[in-house]
Amino acid sequence: MKVHAAIRCQLLALVATTLGLLSSTGCHVLSPAHIPARPQYIAPELLNDSSSQVEFGEPHKVLDTAGWIWGIPDKILLWDHRVDNHQITAPTVETVASYLDENNLPHVKVRVNQYAPLQDFHRLRQNKTVAWPYRYTLGLLSVGGETILPGRFFGGDHFNPYTQTVHLYSDVPAIALHELAHAKDFTRRRYQGTYALAYMFFPTWHETIASRDVMAHLYDRHDRAGIIEANRIQYPAYGTYVAGTASWFIPGGGTALYYGCVIAGHANGRMLSRDVDQHLADYHQMFRSQPVPHQSVPAISQPDMSVPVPEPQPMWDESQLNPPRVSQAASNESPASNMH
Length: 340
Fold this sequence. Notes:
Blueprint: H1 2-25, E1 40-41, H2 44-47, E2 54-56, H3 61-70, H4 72-78, H5 90-102, E3 109-112, H6 117-126, H7 132-148, H8 151-154, E4 158-160, E5 165-168, H9 173-187, H10 192-199, H11 203-220, H12 224-246, H13 254-274, H14 276-287, E6 300-301
Parallel strand pairs: 1-6, 2-3, 3-5
Antiparallel strand pairs: 4-5
Helix pairs in contact: 1-13, 5-9, 6-7, 9-11, 9-12, 11-12, 12-13
Keywords: Signal
């Protein structure tokens, strides 16, 4: 027992030293890398949804305040008071709409601080890009969990691949982009149910892909403030998944390993942000001669091509929020209406 404890201590010391060295110099683990836009596997039934692609929960002062209080641990973990604040503002919604538009994700529903379990069960049945054995086991459990433990109170921004729905409770554009990147990633997978199952065992793989796409999205736009925010938010969040993976090899790591990785993530993100201007210059210099292709017109692979694509629908109900103007997709394209 003493030998095993000594080995665990040595491994923890090695991990802590490694994380400290990386964070002191700024390790670009989540370097910009776009998720390929092709192919896309979309259930035609989801395209036929005539409701607004971005929907909003009705404001409820008592409930939202209680949710804000419940979310204090996550606010501290990511060191941002906007996490799980249940009050999403127009700039974050504009970021959501822009990403959906540019990446041609008309089938993705975005619920902004909304509790709608019946609609989600309906979308679970419609999403036939996920095989029925997955939908009616893991899918039912996921929607059932969202029903019993509603994010409207408990928070927890996430993407549900079984319903192709993004649930947002934080007013942080970087978090919204990250969840949308998961939707983009799943859309290109032929076996989406299997890919969702893999997330339960190797989430770091999926999280890396989504996080790097967020960085590419922001670097392409020369969004200096957005990159700094993404560094601050994504690296400590990523640290929680690194800790989870490392715990497989360091069973006794526990709390020390978890918070060590989070702290290292905070340090690393801030170190990278100090050199953001140089990173931006290097990125655009690298791609100056080979610009990233526009990704808004991918080929869509549908289970049943006989189902027609519906007419463009409004991205949101403007009576619920007054977001800034957001350009719709070109008239000859389907509209792109749509961490824990």
